[in-house]
Specification:
Blueprint: H1 9-26, H2 50-75, H3 80-104, H4 116-131, H5 140-160, E1 163-165, E2 168-170, H6 178-197, H7 201-220, H8 227-230, H9 240-260, H10 264-284, H11 298-321, H12 332-336, H13 338-354, H14 368-391
Antiparallel strand pairs: 1-2
Amino acid sequence: MNPFPRRLASVDAFRAITMFLMIFVNDLWSLKNIPSWLEHATRTEDKLGLADTVFPAFLFIVGLSIPFAIRARQSKGASRNSTLLHILTRSFALLVIGIFHVNLEDYNKVEAILPKPVWQIAITIGFFLVWLDYSPKMTEKKKWFLRGSGILLLAVMAALYKGGKPGDSSWMEPRWYGILGLIGWSYLLCACISLLAKDKLAVLTSVLIFFIGFNIADEAGWLEFLDPVRKYIWIVGSGSLPALVMAGVVTSVLYRQLTEKGKGMQSLLILGIFAVAALVAGFALRPYGGISKINATPSWVLICMAISLACFLILIFVMDIKGKQNWVSWLRPAGTSTLTCYLLPYIHYAFINAASSANRLPLALRSGGVGILKSLLYALLIVLITGVLEKRRLRLSI
């Protein structure tokens, strides 16, 4: 097998496929009469739907990418401190966007000055202004004017925000930080650990085991003595989310180290055993809390970890070993401009929510198999638009 490259086609493909599926499952709210296995399981269900596997897959991919990103910066001469600052900056950006998004859920449509769709579009424009990948040909003065405009727009939107119920309104709160916020916290924790560990596999594996053990201990009620500090200091997702990220980190480092020693196939065997062990452990723990994404149970974590690892191994074999990469080229923008792809539906959904029900698609196009096809085409359309914007350098860079 060839020496380990700076980035793997399989990682980019996995990210693109996962983002496509994320757009698809996020659009399922608009459908009726679709199979329950496509949707999220409820809090009380012991069940794993397709939608329950997408977020953990993305966390796993975040972990896969961390060692690549750190090595890429080091190859350019970046110091550890500058890399740490980069990690902190990225995490902060994800937290900011996540907090704005999570407050959309509790928007007070009655007492707020702006209609919810207007506020939603405004904050999305603000995100683009602040974190757009501006052309190097643009003057620094113009860049900072646009970034400053975005910061001002977000500040104004935050000041105008009202959440809660009529008569009992509230201002913006972190709440559960939203999807991007959870990714931000998990990325911050695992990227800092990876930076300090310097690709020491034993250390990274120990941290992974710790996160899994912490999640199991919390589910079992063994950490109740820490309840007084839980509100102030806690591991995001009770260890579940960073466990998925760290599984990606361990996978990436192990695969690279063995591949560089000419033991690529051996690495696939070891990772395959890892996937089987995670799957078996996940089902073994199922009686203790069940499989639940909402409750972030150990069973959900381990089973999704196994699924993500298995998918990645298949993509390694197909794309990196066999060299068959063109079949996923149509999804590539979702892997290279991921955050842009994720944010675009927020603009579309704002317009949909602002429109009257009479202007929406008829129920026949939002039901059953036809509805599923509609959501698949919608996800594809978002990816294609992302590609068009990317060619015009209209993409976010965090």
